[in-house]
Write a structure and sequence with these properties.
Blueprint (H helix, E strand, L loop, with lengths): L1 H22 L38 E6 L18 H8 L2 E7 L4 H10 L32 H7 L3 E7 L25 E5 L12 E2 L2 E2 L10 H19 L5 E6 L11 H5 L8 H16 L23 H34 L6 E6 L24 H10 L15 H6 L14 H4 E7 L9 E3 L3 E2 L3 H9 L6 E2 L2 E2 L23 E6 L2 E6 L2 E5 L12 E5 L15 H17 L14 H16 L1
Parallel strand pairs: 1-7, 1-8, 2-10, 2-11, 3-4, 3-7
Antiparallel strand pairs: 2-9, 4-5, 5-6, 8-9, 12-13, 14-15, 15-16, 16-17
Helix pairs in contact: 5-8, 8-9
GO molecular function: arylsulfatase activity
Organism: Mucilaginibacter lappiensis
Enzyme class: hydrolase
């Protein structure tokens, strides 16, 4: 029976390979109109003078956009964290750090906003693809009238590669039967190697190449991030050999540090005993680092420890051992990711392409996660066991935390710590803890100052227009025959060589899971939504973001007219971008892994 099933799968894959050229989306290439030949007979050979496909300008820069997953603001060493990131540090020292960069608070919406230059609801990705429902802002079918940066760059003569996490294909389309027009290769990427879900196993991943299930040799024990870096280098190398003058766009999105928390042992060992001080002390240490580095203002103080989190000193010795081990693995996971990204950067340098590249590193698609167990390493089936029994079981499994087959994440105490100095987490679109992430820009051909800090307000939707401005790309009115809607972001190219430039992105709404906010001219109004509660009972708060970096002082009572004004603007914006109806039913956090686990088990059985 297994042989028959295997044969059918081979037949199915062969059929897909045959159909693949018919399914792909190419550059706009209409039939040429040559007009009437001036002579009846031609006895000389005519040279092909006019390019059929648009070509990029000579020495057009390569574009490399790197986005990490679920990394808090204070995790990476580049922004004051205690996880060492020498590659990020090096890029920042020769480029710029953006300290006021914003995401949407969730992974799929952030990726949609980044790639399209439009707000996430505007491109129908108001939530996860797994929780899509039949409303304009939430059905997860990104419209072709709002092209991706890859589609536009390809029209400007670029090769385009997507490597890593995608998470933008509607759930119903994520099978070998397609349709494939909303897979990466249907949205402008010439090559794709990665996974379609929100997460996959780091040692037994479910991967696709193009629209075909990729064979993965899991017997070697190779980490997924290493596989992704290898493939990114291969794509660049092969293109460079074929046409060294042609620029490329690489969208590199490893699954790190999203759960499952899994990394190579040597990276965990690197941090042995480094986090025994606990999460309370960690927050104090990183805030000092952040002020020294200039990535937070000097007046900032830490918000109180969240009420759901125990004081570190209240934990037992065994609990501390388990909790510290989880953070050792988390820091190791990020350092390993930094190293693998460094391999891609080093290849660009060795091949002479780095100095003609624009590299953007977005350290997290949202803040650190709140979807995590309170105690890592506890085996399944112990939900009803006593706390003491669960601690003993976790301690027994301590060496497995962060290694192969581990399905958990760091506990909430560490995710708050790695989000310092902000409050709340991923999914909380009202708070900076959900939407405020570090960004590094390395662009030697465009930046005069090296190692600078930029504090201008920037959002993911600003990346698309910034790239277009830097490379002077032509934005076609039609892409693949679809009339294009305006881009909604604002280029931040004006900040590259002017640290004192006045903000140009001055109005931005936020919403996920009915938690919502609006930023305007340095002020921010926000409402946290409790699931299942009436939206009308949500309390609106007000913050002066120019003088209150991490939302310490709620000024709603002091300035009720400002609250009223900003709420009116919120209504304008959310109606414009199809945010209504508000939707607060969350996808069960562990179901991401259940989806991936089922496919990973299938992959292992096939082997």
């Amino acid at each position: 029976m297994k042989k028959i099933t295997y044969s059918l799968k081979l037949f199915h894959i062969a059929g897909l390979l045959f159909l693949y050229p018919l399914m792909g989306y190419a550059q706009h290439s209409p039939e040429k109109n040559y007009g009437q030949d001036p002579i009846k007979y031609d006895t000389t050979t005519k040279l092909f003078k006019t390019a059929y496909i648009p070509k990029a300008p000579v020495k057009a820069p390569n574009i490399v956009i790197i986005m990490l997953d679920d990394v808090g603001f204070s995790t990476a060493g580049s922004f004051g964290g205690l996880a060492e990131t020498p590659v990020f540090d090096s890029l920042a020292k020769r480029g710029l750090k953006y300290t006021n960069f914003h995401t949407t608070a969730l992974c799929a919406p952030s990726r949609a906003a980044l790639l399209t230059g439009r707000n996430h609801h505007s491109v129908h990705m108001g939530h996860f693809t797994e929780t899509a429902f039949d409303a304009a802002g939430y059905d997860s079918y990104m419209p072709f009238e709002k092209a991706t940066i890859a589609e536009v760059l390809r029209e400007n003569g670029y090769n385009t590669f997507a490597v890593g996490k995608w998470h933008l294909t509607p759930l119903a389309d994520r099978t070998a039967a397609g349709p494939f027009n909303r897979w990466p290769t249907g949205r402008g990427f010439d090559r794709f190697y990665g996974f379609l879900e929100s997460a996959t196993d780091q040692y037994y991943p479910v991967l696709w190449e193009g629209i075909t299930r990729a064979a993965v040799d899991t017997g070697k024990g190779t980490h997924l991030t290493t596989m992704l870096a290898d493939r990114a280098i291969d794509y660049i190398r092969n293109q460079n050999k074929a046409n060294p003058q042609k620029p490329f766009f690489l969208y590199f999105t490893p699954g790190a540090v999203h759960s499952p928390l899994q990394t190579d042992q040597r990276w965990i060992d690197k941090y042995k005993d480094k986090f025994d001080m606990g999460w309370d002390k960690y927050r104090e240490l990183v805030l000092t680092n952040q002020k020294r580095l200039g990535v937070v203002p000097g007046y900032v103080t830490l918000p109180p420890r969240n009420e759901k989190i125990a004081a570190w000193e209240s934990l037992s010795a065994d609990e501390k051992k388990v909790m510290a081990r989880a953070m050792e693995a988390h820091a190791g996971f990020l350092s390993q990711t930094d190293y693998e990204i460094g391999r891609v950067i080093n290849y660009l340098k060795q091949s002479g392409q780095l100095e003609n590249s624009v590299v953007m590193v977005i350290i997290g698609d949202n803040g650190a996660t709140k979807y995590t167990a309170d105690l890592p390493g506890v085996p399944e089936g112990m939900e009803k066991a006593s706390h003491e029994e669960r601690v003993k079981a976790a301690l027994k499994n301590i060496d497995q935390i962060g290694r192969k087959n581990f399905k958990g994440d760091i506990p909430l105490g560490w995710t708050q710590a790695t989000n310092a100095p902000f409050k709340l987490w991923k999914g909380d679109a009202n708070a900076e803890g959900g939407t405020h992430n570090p960004m590094i820009l390395y662009a030697p051909g465009f930046i005069r100052e090296k190692g600078g800090i930029r504090n201008q307000y920037v959002h993911l939707i600003d990346v698309w227009p910034t790239v277009m401005e830097l490379i002077k790309a032509k934005i076609p009115a039609l892409v693949n025959g679809y009339q294009q809607a305006p881009v909604e972001g604002t280029s931040f190219a004006y900040t590259l060589n002017n640290a004192a430039a006045k903000d140009r992105h001055t109005l931005q709404y936020y919403e996920t899971g009915a938690s919502r906010a609006l930023y305007k001219d340095g002020w921010k109004v926000e409402a946290y939504h409790h699931q299942g509660r009436s939206y009308l009972k949500d309390t609106w708060e007000l913050y002066d973001m120019q003088h209150d970096f991490n939302e310490h002082f709620n000024l709603a009572t002091k300035y009720p007219e400002k609250v009223k004004e900003l709420r009116a603007w919120f209504e304008i914006e959310v109606k414009k971008y199809h945010v209504y109806p508000l939707h607060d039913s969350w996808f069960p956090a562990n179901q991401y892994l259940q989806i991936s686990d089922s496919r990973e088990k299938e992959a292992q059985e096939e082997e």
